[in-house]
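Morning!

This is the sequence you dropped in the shared folder:
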Amino acid sequence: MIQWYVIRASGVVALALLTVTVVLGLLNRSRVTSDRWPRFVIDRLHRNASLLALVFLCVHIVTAVTDTWVSVRLVDVFIPFWGRYRPFWVGLGATAVDLLAAVIVTSLVRVRLGVKTWRGVHWLAYLAWPVAVAHGLGIGTDSGQIWMLGIEVICIGSVLAALAVRLAAPLRLAGQAW
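The structure's back. Tokens below.
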């Protein structure tokens, strides 16, 4: 029973931290800065939030795989839509894991890859986030609860707001050139 709570809690925390990571990544790329929040602070928070998200994602995965109530095998975590238990929704989670794994691996060898290649693969994080959101909405046992819907709305709203700032950044930066 406690394992079920750990699966749920670690999934919610991983989603929240992944959201923070995406928001900070968008803000950092938008060159959002202030006296209180210089760019290097945003960059470090982005990196630390992503590492913490990875820890909670690993807890989520390990507890789901070792849970005896549902049948999620280790292979189901990495091969999308292969499993027996709710294959579509678990498959979305596996897809998000695969995309994030590519981002993590390339970030670890960033110096050897070059900025262009690393940045190209790093864009997969922006695809992994909505896939992870859909995974949680579809398989989460709390997805219909008002508190969970509130968390989802905050996560989605935060990313959309950061995306709006990111899309406006070229306009803002072009206006500063005048």
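Headline: The helical segments are 2-29, 39-66, 74-78, 87-108, 110-113, 115-122, 124-139, 146-176.

More detail when I'm at my desk.
O.
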